[in-house]
C-alpha cells in the first residue's frame, strides 16, 4: 500500500511539473511582452517598471534559464505576485481556499448521495413510471447549463420566494458568532451546493442505474434469490455494493469537472472561493493570478484523485490481488 | 439503412431530439431572413417584457436589443462552435488513439501518458486559461474546447483498435502485405465508425455547454452574439428582467438535451447488441 501511494504521489508530482511547464509556455505564447502579461497588462505600466519586472523574472535571460527560474519558484510555493491586487498570489488563494473546499465537498456529498439513491430506486423499479421519471430528470439536469440553473435558482428561491439568500458567504455586518454564524453560512451554502451538486447527481444516477442493472444479471444474484433472500436485501447488500465500484471510479474522475463547475457557481453566487478569484483575475486580466489558481486547482484535483484511488483499494480488496 | 432508421425511431426520445435539433438548425438558417437587422442593434426601449409586443415576442434586453433576434443569431454560433470543435477534437483524438492501440508497446505508453496528462488537468479551468491568454475569438474558443475534449476519443479509439487488431480480417491484411497506414485507414478505422459517431453527438452537446459557459464568463467572441453572452449580460438585471437570462438558457438546455437524446438513439441503432444490455 505504501509503495502504491508513493507511486501515485510521484505521478501526481510529475503531472504538476508538466502543468507548470505548460503555464510557462502559455505566458510566453500570449500575445505581447511576457513582463506586461505578468503585470496584468496594466494600462499605466511604464518602461522602468517593466524593466524591473524583466530583471526580477530573469526575462532577459535565455528561455531555458527562465523556465528553470520559474519552476524553482513554483517548487518553493512562490506563485508570483498579483500586481492588480497588490498581494502574493499564494496568499490570495490560501485566503479563498476554505470556501471552495466547503462548497465543492458539500456538492460532492450531495451529488453522490442523491445520485446513488435515485439510481438505485430507478433500477429497482426498472420500466415503471418512477424509473422513467428519475431517468428523465437526470437527463434534463445533465443538459442544463450550470450557471443558468444557478441563476434560475436565485430567481426562484431568493428573489421570488425569499426563502434563502442568493448571494455571498455570510450576512455581512451581522456579527454572528458560534452556532448562529454556522447556521448563517449554511443557509448561504444551500443554493450553491445544491445547484453544483444536481448536475453531477445526474451523472451518478445514470451510472448507478446502468451498473446495478448489469450486476442484476450476474450469477451470484440468482444464487441469492434461490436461497430465498428478500428482494430488498439482495438489492441493498449484494447488488448495490458491487454496483458502486464503477460509480466511485467515476466520482474520482469527476473531481476536475467539479472544480470547473465551482468557477461558474461561485461567480453566480458571489461565493468567495478560488473560482470567484479566477473570475476576478479574468475580468482584471491578471494572468499571474489566473495561472496560479489554475495550478492550485489542478493540485486539488490530483490530491482528490489520489484519495479516491486509496479509498477504492480499501473498499475493494480484489484490486490488490489483481495488480 | 432502413434497419438503422427503424431502430433509431424505436427510441422515442431520440426522435423528439431529432425534431428539436432540426428546429434549431432551421432557426439558425432562417435568422438572417427573419431578423435582417444586426442582433446588436438597439431597436426599442429596453426592458420590454416578453409576450407584450407582437413585433418583439420575447421582449428586449437592458440595451433595447431584440431578444428573439439574439436567440436566432446565437443558434448558429452555438451549433457551429459545437460542431467544429468536435471535428477538431476527433482530428486530435483519432490518430493518437489509433496509433496507441495499433502499435502498442512504447508508442502506446507515451501516447497514453500524454492523454492521461490532459485528463488529470481540470478541463474547464484549462479552457478558461487558454481562451483568456490567447484572447477570446471563435478560433481560440474552438481550439480550447477541442484541447480539453479529445482524451475520451483517444481512449475509445485505442480500445476499439486493440480489439480489432487481433481479428482475422486484419491478420489477412497483414499477410497480404498491406502497409500499416493502409491497414489502419482502410481496414480498422471504418469499423470504429459507429462508436465514434455516438461519442461525437454527445461531444457536440458538451462543447455547446462549454462555449456557453465561456461566453457567460465574458470569454466569448466580441463580434458574435451567443446564448451564453446574453445570459451573462442579463445576469446583473435578473431581478428586473428575468426573461433576458431565461430564454437563452432554455434554448441551450433544449439543444443540448436534443443532442444527448440523439446520441442515445444512435447508440441503440448502431450498436443494437450492446445497448440492449442495461435496458
What does this entry look like structurally?
- The complex is a heterodimer of chains A (323) and B (279).
- Chain A has 323 residues and is mainly alpha-helical.
- Chain A folds into two domains: 2-89, no CATH class; 98-315, MetI-like (MetI-like fold), CATH 1.10.3720.10.
- Chain A is 78% helix and 1% strand.
- Chain A is built from 14 helices and two strands.
- Chain A has a two-stranded antiparallel sheet with strand order 1-2.
- The termini of chain A are close together.
- Chain B is mostly helical and 279 residues long.
- Chain B has one domain: MetI-like (MetI-like fold), CATH 1.10.3720.10.
- Helix content of chain B is 74%, strand content 0%.
- Chain B has 13 helices and no strands.
- Chain B has helices spanning 2-10, 12-34, 67-103, 105-120, 123-133, 138-149, 151-165, 168-175, 180-188, 193-216, 227-235, 242-270, 272-276.
- The mean pLDDT of chain B is 86.
- Classes of the chains: A mainly alpha (323), B mainly alpha (279).
- The interface between A and B is large, with 52 and 43 residues.
Tell me the major beta sheet of chain B.
none
Count of the domains of chain A: 2
| Overall average pLDDT of chain B | 86
The CATH topology of the largest domain in chain A is given as MetI-like fold
Q: Calculate Rg of chain A over CA atoms.
A: 24 Å
Strand order of the largest sheet of chain A: 1-2
Helix content of chain B: over 70%
Average pLDDT reading of chain A: 81
So, CATH architecture of chain B? Orthogonal Bundle
The main pleated sheet of chain A reads as: 2 strands, antiparallel
CATH H level, superfamily name of the largest domain in chain A: MetI-like
How many structural domains does the protein architecture of chain B include? 1
Global geometry of chain B: elongated
Rg of chain B, rounded, reads: 22 Å
Q: Largest interface here, residues on each chain?
A: A-B, 52 and 43 residues
Estimated helix fraction of chain A: over 70%
Give a count of the beta strands of chain A, DSSP E runs of length 2 or more: 2
N-to-C SSE string of chain A, H for helix and E for strand: HHHHEEHHHHHHHHHH
Number of helices of chain A: 14
Q: In terms of per-residue confidence, which ranges of chain B show pLDDT below 50 for 5 or more consecutive residues?
A: none
Order of helices and strands of chain B: HHHHHHHHHHHHH
Amino acid at each position: 500500500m505504501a509503495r502504491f501511494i508513493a507511486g501515485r504521489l510521484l505521478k501526481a508530482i510529475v503531472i504538476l511539473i508538466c502543468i507548470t511547464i505548460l503555464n510557462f509556455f502559455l505566458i510566453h505564447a500570449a500575445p505581447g511582452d511576457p513582463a506586461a502579461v505578468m503585470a496584468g497588462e496594466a494600462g499605466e505600466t511604464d518602461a522602468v517598471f517593466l524593466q524591473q519586472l524583466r530583471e526580477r523574472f530573469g526575462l532577459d535571460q535565455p528561455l531555458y534559464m527562465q523556465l528553470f527560474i520559474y519552476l524553482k519558484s513554483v517548487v518553493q510555493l512562490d506563485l508570483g505576485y498579483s500586481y492588480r491586487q497588490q498581494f502574493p498570489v499564494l496568499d490570495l488563494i490560501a485566503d479563498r481556499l476554505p470556501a471552495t473546499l466547503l462548497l465543492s465537498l458539500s456538492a460532492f456529498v450531495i451529488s453522490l448521495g442523491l445520485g446513488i439513491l435515485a439510481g438505485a430506486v430507478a433500477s429497482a423499479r426498472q420500466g415503471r413510471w418512477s424509473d422513467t421519471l428519475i431517468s428523465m430528470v437526470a437527463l434534463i439536469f445533465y443538459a442544463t447549463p450550470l450557471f443558468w440553473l444557478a441563476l434560475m435558482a436565485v430567481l426562484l428561491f431568493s428573489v421570488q420566494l425569499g426563502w434563502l439568500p442568493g448571494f455571498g458567504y455570510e450576512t455581512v455586518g451581522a456579527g454572528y458568532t458560534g452556532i448562529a454564524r454556522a447556521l448563517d453560512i449554511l443557509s448561504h451554502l444551500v443554493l450553491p451546493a445544491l445547484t453544483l451538486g444536481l448536475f453531477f447527481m445526474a451523472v451518478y444516477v445514470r451510472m448507478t442505474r446502468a451498473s446495478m442493472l448489469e450486476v442484476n444479471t450476474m450469477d451470484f444474484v440468482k444464487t441469492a434469490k434461490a436461497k430465498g433472500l428478500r428482494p430488498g436485501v439482495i438489492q441493498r447488500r449484494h447488488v448495490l455494493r458491487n454496483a458502486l465500484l464503477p460509480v466511485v471510479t467515476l466520482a474520482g474522475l469527476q473531481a476536475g469537472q467539479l472544480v470547473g463547475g465551482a468557477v461558474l457557481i461561485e461567480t453566480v453566487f458571489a461565493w468567495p472561493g478560488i473560482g470567484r478569484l479566477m473570475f476576478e483575475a479574468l475580468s482584471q486580466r491578471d494572468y499571474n493570478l489566473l495561472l496560479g489558481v489554475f495550478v492550485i486547482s489542478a493540485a486539488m484535483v490530483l490530491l482528490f484523485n489520489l484519495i479516491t484511488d486509496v479509498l477504492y483499494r480499501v473498499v475493494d480488496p480484489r484490486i490488490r490481488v489483481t495488480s | 439503412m432502413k434497419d438503422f432508421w427503424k431502430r433509431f425511431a424505436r427510441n422515442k426520445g431520440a426522435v423528439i431530439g431529432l425534431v428539436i435539433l432540426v428546429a434549431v438548425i432551421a432557426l439558425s438558417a432562417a435568422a438572417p431572413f427573419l431578423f435582417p437587422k444586426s442582433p446588436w442593434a438597439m431597436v426599442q426601449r429596453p426592458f420590454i417584457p416578453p409576450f407584450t409586443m407582437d413585433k418583439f415576442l420575447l421582449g428586449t434586453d437592458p440595451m433595447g436589443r431584440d431578444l428573439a433576434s439574439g436567440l436566432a443569431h446565437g443558434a448558429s454560433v452555438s451549433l457551429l462552435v459545437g460542431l467544429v470543435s468536435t471535428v477538431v477534437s476527433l482530428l486530435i483524438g483519432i490518430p493518437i488513439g489509433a496509433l496507441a492501440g495499433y502499435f502498442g508497446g512504447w508508442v502506446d505508453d507515451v501516447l497514453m501518458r500524454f492523454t492521461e496528462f490532459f485528463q488529470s488537468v481540470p478541463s474547464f479551468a484549462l479552457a478558461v486559461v487558454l481562451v483568456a491568454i490567447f484572447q477570446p475569438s471563435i478560433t481560440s474558443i474552438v481550439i480550447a474546447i477541442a484541447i480539453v475534449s479529445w482524451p475520451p476519443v483517444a481512449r475509445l479509439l485505442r480500445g476499439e483498435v486493440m480489439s480489432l487488431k487481433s481479428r482475422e480480417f486484419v491478420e489477412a491484411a497483414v499477410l497480404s502485405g498491406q502497409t500499416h497506414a493502409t491497414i489502419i485507414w482502410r481496414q480498422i478505422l471504418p469499423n470504429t465508425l459507429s462508436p465514434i459517431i455516438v461519442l461525437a453527438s454527445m461531444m457536440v452537446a458538451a462543447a455547446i455547454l462549454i462555449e456557453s459557459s465561456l461566453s457567460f464568463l465574458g470569454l466569448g467572441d466580441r463580434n458574435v452574439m451567443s446564448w451564453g453572452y446574453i445570459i451573462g449580460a442579463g445576469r446583473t438585471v435578473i431581478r428586473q428582467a428575468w426573461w433576458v437570462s431565461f430564454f437563452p438558457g432554455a434554448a441551450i438546455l433544449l439543444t443540448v438535451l436534443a443532442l444527448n437524446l440523439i446520441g442515445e438513439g444512435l447508440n441503440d441503432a448502431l450498436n443494437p447488441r450492446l445497448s440492449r444490455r442495461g435496458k
